[in-house]
Amino acid sequence: QVQLVESGGGLVQAGGSLSLSCAASGSRFSINTMGWYRQAPGKQRELVALITRGGSTNYADSVKGRFTISRDNAKNMVYLQMTSLRPEDTAVYYCYTYVRGEYWGQGTQVTVSA
Predict the structure, then answer these.
(1) All residues at 6 or more sequence positions from 98 whose CB lies less than 8 Å from its CB, including other chains
(2) Rounded distance, CA 66 to CA 45, Å?
(3) Fewer CB within 10 Å, N side or C side of the chain?
(4) Would residue 37 be called left, alpha or beta, if left means φ above 0 and alpha means ψ between -120 and 50 degrees?
(5) Integer CA distances (angstroms), 17 to 14, 76, 78, in order
């Protein structure tokens, strides 16, 4: 059983920056893919960014050039640096990993005011 614990998030004005962190624990196996999804009110959960153990990344078109995902394999942590935030980035952000099954964090709120 893998546990994911997020930190960061909060309230920021449009154009501002925020950082999210996520720590993974409890896995008996090497963690390959880690990443972030988000869910805005009334919308489906959507991919934000993924990163493999080797550092390959995949971003949603809506965040390319503004968000940066990174990870520390030794610490089993994944990070999301968000810049040039927009009101439409407002959502609950969930940490994600796949280790012989999908695992999700509890979510952290990001609110961007206009």
Answers:
(1) 32, 33
(2) 19
(3) C
(4) beta
(5) 9, 23, 17
Coil, helix or strand for 87? helix
Kindly state the greatest CA–CA separation across the chain: 44
Q: Is the pLDDT of residue 22 over 90?
A: yes
Torsion region of 107: left, alpha or beta (phi above 0 gives left; psi -120 to 50 gives alpha): left
pLDDT tens digits along 34-86: 999 999 999 999 999 999 999 999 999 999 999 999 999 999 999 999 999 99
Note whether 64 and 22 are within 8 A (CB): no
Name the nearest CA neighbour of 78 among 103, 60, 61.
103
Tell me the backbone φ, ψ of residue 89, rounded to 5 degrees.
-85, -5
Instruction: Report whether 96 contacts 22 (CB < 8 A).
Output: no
Are 61 and 71 in contact by the 8 Å Cβ rule? The answer is no
Is residue 16's pLDDT more than 90? yes
